[in-house]
Amino acid sequence: MQILKFGGKSLSNGKGLEAVLSIISKKVAQGQPIAVVVSARDKATDQLEAMLEKASKGTLVNEEFSDFKQYQSDGHSVDFSAEFSILQKIFDGVSLLGDYNEKIKDNTLAQGEILSAKFISHLLSERGIPAQFVDSRAFYVTDSLFGSAQLISAISQEKTQAYFKDFPKGVVPIVTGFIAANEKGETTTLGRNGSNYSASLLANFLNAEELQNYTHVDGIFTANPELVPQAKIIRQLSFEEANELANFGTSILHAKTIIPLLEKKIPLRILNTFKAEDAGTLICEGDSVGGIRAISVLDNYALIVLEGRGLLGKVGVDARIFNALAQAKISVSIISQGSSERGIGFLVANKDARKAQQALEKEFEIDVYNHDVSQVSVVENVGVVSIVGQDLADFDKPYNALVRNQVAPFLINNSATGKNVSIVIHKKDLPKAVNVIHGEIFEISKRINLAIFGRGTVGNTLIQQIFQAREDILKRRNINLQIISVADSKQFVFDPKGISTTQYDNFAQEATPYTLNEFIGLVQQHHLENLLAIDVTASKTFVENYLPLVENGFDLVSANKIANTIDYPFYKKLRETLAQYKKQYLYETNVGAGLPLIDTIKLLHHSGENITRIKGIFSGTLSFLFNTYSASEAPFSEILRKAIESGYTEPDPREDLCGNDVGRKLLILARELDLENEFEEVAIENLIPEHLREGSREEFLSRLNEFDAIYQEIKDKAPKGTVLRYVGDLHGDLSQTATARLEVKLVAVPESSALGQVKGADSIFEIYTESYGENPIVIQGAGAGAAVTARGVFGDILRIIGNK
Questions:
Q1: pTM of the model as a whole
Q2: Quick check: is 665 catalytic?
Q3: Which position among 5, 419, 432, 665 bears the catalytic label?
C-alpha cells in the first residue's frame, strides 16, 4: 500500500483539485492500493482561526463565514450541514463569551480537515471511483494537551490496524489529517505539521511501502526557492539527513513526520501536485552524502535575553529560567550561553514573547530588586537561518559574506553534532541572508548588483563594456554582473532582476524621477545583496550620497575626483564610515585613467616604503597639447584646435587649461600618503592668459590666436635640448610633516628624460622612494579617453568583487 498525502494548496479549487483527483484516479486505474490523507483545503485553517479570533472580540463573522461555506462547497451538493452547524454554534458562543480556549480552537480547526476529506470523497465518487470518508479521531488517541496533543502510540496503532482490517476492499479511504481525540473522545490536534505527521503515522501503522507527500513545490531544495530563485533540488536524502533538515526547520519536513518512517524504513517521496510526473525528492535508507545539504529558515520568533552580573557563579539559574517557562507552557528553541551564568539568550515563538518576559520577571523579581539581574529584554521579529551540514570551523566564509552585506547575527549556535550552524537575525534580513549564504556555499554564480550613476561618455561606455563582458565573466569567474539601476541627475531606470540592453537603450522612455532615499528603499524592498555603486559623474553634489550609500550596504567605485579633493574632514569621515561598515572604495581612474598608479602608491606606502617625491604629467589632454607643440613648428592655437576637434579636451577647454584638474589629482596622491593637504594649498600655474579667463565658451574659442605669441615666447626661452611639459610635483619632507609641497606648472625638461620622451596623449608618473634612490618607479600609458577611463572603472569593479 502507498499512502498519499495532499497539502492545502494542492486541494484549492480549480487546477489544484483537478490535479489531485487525476493523481488518485491514475493510481486506482493502475491497481495500486492507496490510502489518502488530506489537509484542510487552501487557506481554510487560517480562515477558521481568523474568524474565531474576530468572534472573540464580539465582531460578527457572518460575511466571512458565508464566503467560507461557499468556497468549501464550490457549487457541489455535499452535505456539510453538520460541520457548518458546529462552526456556527462555536462562533456564536465565542462572540457571546468574548473568549475561547485551546479545546474550542481544536474543535474549530478540525472542521477544516473534515470538510476537506468529505469533499474529496464526494468528488471521487462522482467520477466513479469508490471512496469513503475516514475520520482519524476514530483511531488516533492522544493526551489532553489541546493545541499540540501527544499521541498515545500503542493504543493508536492497535485502533488503526483494527479499523483498516475490516475496511472495504477496492474503496479508497480519504483520511483527515491533523486531528485526533483524547480518551474521552474530545477533539485534539497534533500541532505544527500535524497532517504530515498523521500520514507518516498511518504509513507506520499499516506498514506501507511508501509515503508520497504531494505539495506545491518540486521537492526539497538547497533553500526555499521562493526566497532563493537559484536554489537546487535535492533528489535523494538519507533518513539521517532528512531528520537533520527536519530538526532545523525545513518547511516541508518536521521531525515528528520523519520518526515514524525512520522506525520502519518507509521511504518518503516529496512530489509536486502540479508536476506529478517529476521524480521529486526521495528520502530513504542509505548512506549520508556528507557536507552541506540545505539552508532552512524559521521566522516569527523572539529573542529573550536575561542578563545579570550578580548571577555569576550562582548554581541553578538555568533551572529557574526553564521551570518558569515550562509553567507558562512556553516552548524554547535555540539557546545560547557563555561559560558563566551571567547571561543567557534563547528563542520563543513571537506570540509567547511577552508572556515569557512576564514569567521571568516574576521569577527573578527579588534578583532584580537586589540588582543581581539587570533586565529581561525582548527582541521581537527575529528569524533563524540554519545551515544543515555546516562545520563551524568552515563558517568563516558565509559569516564574512553576511557582515559585508550588513546582516549582523544576534546569536550563532552550533549543534551538538558540530555539523549544523544556526544564526539568529532580524526577520527583515532573512531573504538577503539566505541568498548571501546560499551563493557562498553552493557555488552558484555570485550575483553582484551594480548601480551606475552617470550617463555621460564614460558612463555609457562603461555600461556597454559590462553588457559585452558579463557572459564571459560569468563563464570564467562564475560572477553574475547585473546592472540594477542606471541614473542621471534626475531620472533612473531600476530593475531588481537586472536591466537589459533593451531597457537601457530605451532609457528616455522608461526612466522615472527618483531620490536617493527612494532608490535605497527599492534596494531594501527587494533584499538585494552584494551591492556596488559606481559614480561616473563629475558632480560636486553627488558625492554627498557616498555616506548614505555606504551606510546602506554599498561598496563604491568612482571616477569622480570630488570626494577625494574636497575638505579633509569629509575625506576622513568617508574613510571612517567605510571602515565602520567594512566597505571598499576604489577610484584608480581619479588620477591615471586606466593606469595602476593609486594601487601602486598604496602598496608602497602601506608596506612601509618611504615615498619622497611623485612627479609626472597628469593630464592626457595637456600631454597631447605640449608633446605636439614642442615637436612642431605650428602655432599653439593650431595645436589647441586640433586637441579640441579630436575630443581630447572638455567642451570648454579652459577646464583643462586652468590646471585645476591636475591640481586635484596631485592632491589625491598626497592624501594617499596620509598627508592632510587642502586644495587651496596646491600652487597651480593657470595656462590661460588672464584676459581670456572670463566670458563665454564661444568668445574664448574665437580668440585662440591670442595664445600664440605668449607660448611662442615661452618656447623660445626654453633651454636647448628641452621640451615643454605641464608637470605636477609632490615633494617635501614627507616623513616629518603632515603636508607636502604641491606644485603644478609648465616646465622645460630634458628631451632625453622620461618626461621629455612622452608621446601622444600619454600620462607618465615618476615615484621616488628611499629604497629606489635616484631611479624612480615609472608608470606610463594612455592618460585620457572614455574607453580607457571606463576600462579602469571596470577594473576597480572586478577588483572589489575579487576581494569579496
A1: 0.71
A2: yes
A3: 665
